[in-house]
Design goal:
Radius of gyration: 16 Å
Largest sheet: none
Strand content: under 5%
Order of helices and strands: HHHHH
Number of strands: 0
Helix content: 55-70%
Number of helices: 5
Structural class: mainly alpha
Length: 137
């Protein structure tokens, strides 16, 4: 049986724990991962070429999972303050990708990239102006 984590490793070796990140940093992360998705998808000559490129598909899925996780970390109060963004849908999409990976519908993923992602980017860019730039690490 293959293992992802070496048996002598602990989960602490993989991460230092979830950190409380400032909202501007989380917003920056969301926009960064959205831009990565758009760049990866733009490299494909067509939706069919994207669908045939396993590495590109996996990279897009990873970035969608990260976007969903950022939305979780932004929290319910932030969601309520910016209720024009479909936070629950984005989080649900993250959960489907992470847990229902074997039943993904690629046409739907392409629609997210082509239609939903540009809308989300525009909405979050507007929100980011309210919070300013992320702090320097």
């Amino acid at each position: 049986m293959a293992t992802i984590i070496h048996p002598s490793s602990s989960s602490d070796d993989l991460h230092s724990g979830m950190t409380e990140r400032p909202i501007p940093s989380l917003i920056h992360d969301l926009l960064h991962h959205a831009a990565r998705i758009r760049a990866i998808y733009a490299e494909a000559e067509s939706a069919a070429a994207f669908a045939a490129d396993e590495t590109a598909r996996e990279a897009v899925l990873w970035n969608l999972v990260v976007i969903g996780e950022v939305c979780v970390r932004l929290g319910p109060e932030f969601h309520a303050d910016h209720d024009d963004v479909p936070w629950a849908t984005i989080i649900a999409q993250r959960n489907i990708i992470a847990h229902g990976y074997d039943a993904l519908v690629w046409d739907r993923i392409v629609r997210v990239i082509e239609t939903d992602l540009p809308i989300l980017i525009k909405q979050v860019e507007g929100i980011s102006r309210q919070y300013g730039p992320p702090p320097q690490d």
